[in-house]
Structure formats: C-alpha cells, structure tokens
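Aim 2 progress update. The chain analyzed this quarter is reproduced below.
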Amino acid sequence: MSNSTEHVECLIIGSGPAGYTAAIYAARADLKPVIYQGIQPGGQLTTTTEVENFPGYPQGITGPEMMEELKAQAERFGTDTRWGTITEVDSTKRPFKVKADDGKDILADTIIIATGATAKYLGLESEEKFKGGGVSACATCDGFFYKGKDVAVVGGGDTAAEEATYLAKLCRKVYLIVRRDELRASKAMQNRVLNTPNIEVLWNHETKELFGTESGFMKTLKGVVLINNKSHEEKKIEVDGFFLAIGHKPNSELFDGLLDMDDIGYIKTRPDSTSTNIPGIFACGDVQDKVFRQAVTAAGTGCMAALEAERFLASLND
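Predicted structure tokens:
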C-alpha cells in the first residue's frame, strides 16, 4: 500500500440531498464517512432559487442555502467533506480501489453512489441566462411560483404531459411546445393533455430564443420565440415560466460496465433497497430514481443507503 493510499469504511460519491443525508447517518453510526462532492457540490438544487416543498422550512429556503445546511449537519457529526471527483472505481474485490482527482488512492469498504442526474436542456444561450429567472426543469419543484400566470412546457413524452397537466391546475395557461405533430406520451396522458382546456399544444414548434428583462443580476423571463419547423414561421408567446421536460441523464458513467443499469443509465437497485448488484456498493437519489426525482425522496434513499452500509459492515464482523 503506497503512502498516499487511505482506507475508509464508507466512501460517498456525490453530494446533494442524497449524499449529505447518507453522510449524516453514516457519521452518526461512526462509519467516519468521506464524501467527494463532485463537479456540482450540492447537486441540482444549487441551480434553483426557492425550495418550498422540503419539510422543516415553513418560510422556504434557497437551494444553495439548504445544501450548505445539510453539509454543515453532516460535518457536525464528523463527515470528511472534500472538493473534487472520483475518477476510477475497481469493483472487482473489496475493499474497493478508488482513485480521486486530487491524486488520492482510496480503499473503501463500502461505497454510496449519490451522483444524481442532470436535466437535459435545449442548449440555448438565452436558456442558460434565465435559469432561476423563469427557466426550470422541474414543474413540481417550481410550479407554485407561477400560480395564475402563463407558462410553457417543452417536450412530447410522458414527463412533458405530466408536467403540463400539473401546471394546468396552478397556472392560467400552459403552452405545450411539441416539435412533432404527435405526442410520444402514453394514450392516457395524451387524452389528459388534450382534454385540459387551459393547455394549448403548439405542434411542430421548436424554441428559437427566450427573451426577458435584465436588471443587474436579476433576470426575468418574459417570453419565447418559437419557429414552426414546417412553415418556418416565427411565433412569439409571452410566458413567465419555461419548463424543460425533455428528459434527464443519470450521472452514472463512472460505473459503466461495473453495475447493472437500465437502458438510459439509471443504476438498478434491489426492491425496497439501495443495494446494487455488487455487495457493498449502494446507490441513492436521482442516479437510481427516475420516477420521483425530489429532494425529499433523494434524502430518504440517502438515509436507506447509509443504514444498509452500516448493516453490511456489521454483517462482515459477525
């Protein structure tokens, strides 16, 4: 073992609600967890402004503030929080050999994966500009802020249909921007969309540009420029919110070929468990949850992963 190799009982890869909650539980169980926060410390929530649906914050809290509080709570119990990413994992035998981008070689008795997922965006410069100022990738997180207002949803699958019908209960009007002349969503979801009076489907349209106002650091979305991909005509719609529903990409590339995944890349875990196909490696949060994708459910699976890691280590000593 080289001088730079360290041995840890519980290595947590990735932060956010899942990773930090796993760290809180693992630290309280005296597993002395080490957490590598990844390229986006705090995860997707750090890109949102107000979080109003996480229990315990009656006045709401910003995403970055909430992640700082979770991190501080984990560190209070002895979590070793580190900047940086894990670049390599050898899962063939335990302890697992792991390399970090800070040059450290680590031997880990257990690994908890909390690397999350990344929402797919259209890639427009103006879309980036209005993130947090009208652009969102989560209707259930941010829809409440647009109560009584006009919004747009981009996408044609089940997620887009679900987000549009969810927003239709809150908003005055919902435009569903679909680039084809049909929805890919299930028949039941299509019927729900088409029978909701305040949803207007804009068929064969793509987003060209977002526009709004800027005042210092404050950027406020005012509308969208669309282009009809058949007639090539441009159309402007005025909206306060623009919701992306074109899918998520789980951040699981590091485990390609090592762990069982579905065809999109979500890590498969056993029913009622965070266990993967390799004993001692657990996955929690959005990297394994393609259904709910909420901060509170991610925190719940983070708790599960830490408890399962603790039991796994205890079983080795029996």
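Residues 286 and 293 are 6 Å apart (CA to CA). The two ends are 27 Å apart (CA to CA). These observations will guide the mutagenesis experiments scheduled for the next reporting period.
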